Amino acid sequence: MSAKTGAPIIIVRKRSADHDDAHGGAWKVAYADFVTAMMALFIVLWLLSASEKVQKAVGGYFLDPTGKGRQTGTTNSGAGETLTLNRENLQTLKEKLEEVLKQIPAFQHMQNQIRITLTTEGLRVDLIETERGLFFETGNPKPTEAGIALLKVLAGELVKLPNKIAIEGHTDSRPYGRPDYSNWELSADRANAARRALAEFGLDQDRVSQVRGFADQRLLKKDDPTNPSNRRISIIVRNTGLDRQEEAAAVGSAAAQKSQ
Questions:
Q1: pLDDT single digits (tens) 87-142
Q2: Domain regions of the chain by residue span
Q3: Global pTM value
Q4: Strands 122-128, 114-118: pairing kind
Q5: Beta-strand (E) ranges in the chain?
Q6: Closest residue by Cα to residue 1 from 203, 58, 10
Q7: Domain 87-246 in CATH: superfamily?
Q8: By the number of CB atoms within 10 A of the CB, which of 120, 179, 190, 236 ranks highest?
């Protein structure tokens, strides 16, 4: 006590700033997450009210931030738009195809032989062969019953989209065994047989822009070139405008060579 007043002496101790750190600053992380979530919400709300052109431009950026997939010339879809404007449609088609394929009675026996992926070119459906030949008769360009059934299902979905279609044929590295008929002919003939089947089931002939035969040049299993999985048919739903860009590039290249 003070000798003069008799009042008690009060000592105030200030807590150190380390108290906040003892909790690990977890509240800061939570607050940052909240701010990020709110920002994302505002962006979504803004996009919903924006024009279709703005929505496509923003979506195109996130799908192709480097700009490598952008068109370099003016096309019917507009100058500077990305080639993947219909990627959302392709994703929807991928999901629908997977659901439709599950309805095929034999699908459970072939689901590991069907691969559906989204690539820079578009939606790719790979029909991967087995040792016995699931979709095409072994060593033959003729489709099997399972192959025809699956192509019919694919045709029924492809007719609903305006996109161009490309069809590829691939083989393994085993020599075909005939001097006048190689894996090049076999891969191209299988791709063409798939084209005819799709046309038979309603796909407009004009929708097919490319039929390619790659023989064994694009193996799925490069470390096992004779593996039957390397034998496959690929059906690609091409991104909108891709054919026009390739055509324009070819014309530009030919014009440049002519002027030299």
A1: 676 677 778 778 877 777 777 778 889 998 988 898 899 999 998 889 999 899 99
A2: 27-63, 87-246
A3: 0.64
A4: antiparallel
A5: 114-118, 122-128, 165-170, 208-213, 232-238
A6: 10
A7: OmpA-like domain (3.30.1330.60)
A8: 190
